[in-house]
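Running this now, will post back.
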Amino acid sequence: MTDASRNRVSARGAPDGVGRNGWVAPLCWSAVALEGFDLVVLGVVLPSLLDEPAWGLDPATASLISTAGLLGVLVGALSAGPLADRFGRRRAMLYTVVSFSVLTAACAFAAGPWTFGALRFLAGLGLGGVLPVAIALVNEHGRPGRGGTATTILMTGYHVGAVVTSLLGIWVIPAFGWQWMFVLGAAPALVLAPMLARYLPDDVPAAAGGSGARPVTRNPIAQLVKDGYLPSSIAFWVASFMGLLLVYGLNTWLPEIMRAAGYGLGAALSQLLVLNVGAVIGLLVAGRVADRIGLRPATIGWFCAATVFLALLAVRLPGGGIYVSVLLAGVFVFSSQVLVYAYISRHYPDHARASAIGVASGIGRLGAISGPVLGGLLLQAGVAYPWGFFAFAAVAALGALAVLGVRRVGTATPEAR
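Update: finished.
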């Protein structure tokens, strides 16, 4: 084969321009959208599960099931990144999508709450690996200097998947039962998995030899704590914890906090919708800003803006003013966390990128568990309004301070500085 032929054909026989660039972003976006399905599916089916007479499910057991799923995602995120760096991104993405899809489908056949909870934990192992591998792939195969935009556009898939799942639940559950939500959530893998196998490029570790191989170490996590990276790693872990605490805390308790402030149920639910509309707008804007001014100042600025607008939610504004305030809070809160991921992906060397994102995502899941707990404690104490918003604003401020602690290491790409 001539050199020209080699350049035209990439791994698995896909044309180079399509296999290595054109397919990576849409395939990874689709995988992240399936993770977005998992974000809301338990909430969508939970009323039906509580009504299952044979299950005897109560709110406490339901909370345990939810926590089991999040713990699975945590373990999956911590382990999938290093495995992807060690054995290849394409293989890791394929395995994570297939595993969580099979286990999600199995949830439809669970005979009781404990089997269901175990399956949610096991499905979480695969789900947790999707995000770090997807972010690593889109940053490696995207256009130079567009890391912020690539990551934020990827994360719109997360919210699209969540919205589609909510809409499906309105129609599917009354007509066919809650079990079909898990069948439908797993079904896209029948198309997606073969496409991942066919069109995602192979990334061959250096240990395997061959031209174009990327560097690899036996323990890519070691890179996170050596060669001057440890202070930055700690800073990123703290920022990820704070970012996901905000995302899950607000998504869980915003309506109840607004009801405590005197708003009606309908208005409180509408404000949650506005918050997530702001999240999508923020994702579309944040990446472009980061590509223009740099990931470091953009991430710090986004956390600082989130601090301001979260604090402003403690003020009762007349008319539609509260909706504007909620929208702006959504613009900055959700994309702050995504900018952290984008910053991580450009800060570490190629052979540790997925590990760095995976560990930060895994530690961030502890924040995802802590956010609802914090909101619940404030509501139980009767101080959720206005002190809940001040508490969340303080969390955002800590996120900004954490990013300020990131040390500029020599191997970081220019856009990360």
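The CA atoms of residues 205 and 214 lie 5 Å apart. More later if anyone needs it.
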